[in-house]
Structure prediction request, 272 residues.
Amino acid sequence: MAYRLDSDNALRRALRKAAQHQLARAATDLRTLAEEEAVHALRKHCKKMRALLRLVRSDAEALYRAENAHYRALAETLAASRDAVSLRDALDKLAPVDQYPHIRAFLEARIAPTGAEALQRAAALLEQGASRVDHWPLQPLRWRSARRGYQRGYRRAREAMHDTLAEATPEQFHEYRKRVKDQWYHTRLLEGKYRAPLHGRRKPLKTLAQALGDWRDLQLLRRLLALEGNAFHSELIPLLDASDTRLDALQRQIETLGQQLFATAKFRFGRA
Prediction:
């Protein structure tokens, strides 16, 4: 089952089915994947659950607050080495594995194992969350609730875009990326129901979210390495030069895609 709400059902039933599928997939990934892959997969499932809930937040505020806090806490049980992995991955995207060996070894050494206790805690939290889905208070929800949620997410992403263009810090790029990822997830959830208004948005939203993440991670990598001073001898200056070129290309891509995707002040579904 794709990450999509079943348009043939009432919204409350579609939400439950999508949530149950995500949690079943998360439990399977946690059991079967290698640790680093399992942590990455589970954190993605948590983001999808939080996006699902955020889509109907305006008409289910209490549910959103409780369940969003639950899946944030679940993801944080597995966050110990995630930033270190992201910086290692940023170097992987910047250069072949045979370049910058000293920097690469330094980044690999910063990645700590998650540990069995954290994985067991995550499994228990998954089970707790899954046990509540059938009891979510969704009776008031209609498809118009999802449309309002999409429009709210669009507005927040557009505001974050303008803030990022005015203040290009890693923190602001991170906020913009979160809002864009919500739009991407919400587009995936709703495109089966609203094909015409959402046509052509999913892939560029994914590309924009990836570019924003790459920009932020590369800037954080530069910050970390600058703190180490001369520890990397002749590797640091060439890496900074290469990252300058990559950052310029990413920023151009980010600006172009953002202006295309968030051109109007309000997203309109038309007749629904």
